[in-house]
Design brief:
Blueprint (H helix, E strand, L loop, with lengths): L9 E3 L5 E2 L10 E5 L5 E7 L2 H21 L3 H20 L1 H20 L3 E3 L9 E2 L3 H4 L20 E3 L8
Antiparallel strand pairs: 1-2, 1-3, 3-4, 5-6, 5-7
Helix pairs in contact: 2-3
Amino acid sequence: MVPGHAELVGFRLPDGALSTNAAAPADAVGYRAGCSCGWVGTRDYPATDEGRWMATSEWGGHLRPLLAATPPNWLLNRSDALRDNVAELATTWPLQALGILAQVERWQRPLIERPWCRRGRPGSPGRKSATRSASAASPRTSGSAPSLRPSHAPDPTVACAPATNDTR
């Protein structure tokens, strides 16, 4: 669902150790929610079917804000394909590739500069418009093309709201 985030319900063993084996051992004393990103739930749940369900539900709560901020895969795939195709075109037809990049910049810049989100906590005075460039949305590694795929959880201090016609 979200790259880098897979459910890992762990089993609390009698000695206090946490195991993420595929099946709960007979001597498990509880469940603990976890995620492949390293996030660990806040508490242990009973070693029952209901306890496993509660741990899974807690993991769902961890994932919910990430799902809200993650673009759909079909769009990420198209974006990745466009990037790869323009990079390939640039090796043989650099002027045509520059023309395509100029077109992309003409439509993407106004989208990036729109007031999609307002900075600050909801209801706080002095909220400011927040914009982030695509390069700030994900870290670059040396020699790799930028990706629009999210690399971390959204900033909890940003309250997103629909764009308005307010030009103040």
